[in-house]
Amino acid sequence: MSLALEIFHGDARAKIALHGAELKSWTVAGQELIWPGDEKFWADSAPILFPVVGWTRDGILVEGRRLPLGLHGFAREQVFEVTEQAEQRVVLRLSANPATRALYPFEFSLYVEYSINNNNLSVSIYVFNEDMKILPFAWGLHPGFVWPLPGAEGAHVVRFDGQERAEVPVIAPGGLFSDKLRSIPLQGRELALTPDLFEEAVCLLDAQSSGLDFFARDEKGEIKPCLRMELDNFPHIALWSRPGAPFLCLEAWTGHGDPEKFDGDIFAKPSMRCLNPGETARSGARFFWRA
Asked: For residue 2, what pLDDT is reported?
């Protein structure tokens, strides 16, 4: 693990790496909730996605130039600096630099803020357009949680706050989005989690929900324990794991991977946002743990 900072409150602790501003650990009463990373399945824990989400089709096109910006952008590979730090809160910043400009020729300041309060953890992302031109961007949170949950017995389920469609996009070769759909075993608002569900990511574009619960239901039908996620200004939700892997990613996105036949510039890329010079944008998520 690269150099990490710790925030804490009561019996809850979180560790955040300067590399990628990545959440590396979140414990409540000694129970670890974050996937620690393992090369066998997935080496990351909770990367920050910026300035694109998902795979690009041969990089991005900016002002007639093709640039090799790949999967989930570059924020997860950059070292952030600390701008604020207290026992319960830390703010990290990434500013445009020669390495980012080579992939994404825009001036920006990206801030990631973590705060902790008892059994809940909040993450906020801000971007400030430092440029004299419009800033196109997408961002996302990609936290991996241990599965099964600590102390859980029985089958695991994700229950969405709203009624979602029981069909999701098929992911084409190269991680691109097909115009075809596949069915998922959604029963009402509940999705039973099984390894075969994750032959590819479950991507809910323009989701009806701004929150969901990830929990285990025991033989008596009781829900225990439960991890809740609440979203602010994230229109897309994705669930991802690898078959047989002991983690589940609960992802929140503003953008998504390129469509299979997309060949436009970055401003035409579906679900990108545009920020005027001098403006700031924000998205956030809150996670609550109930043992």
From this structure: 56
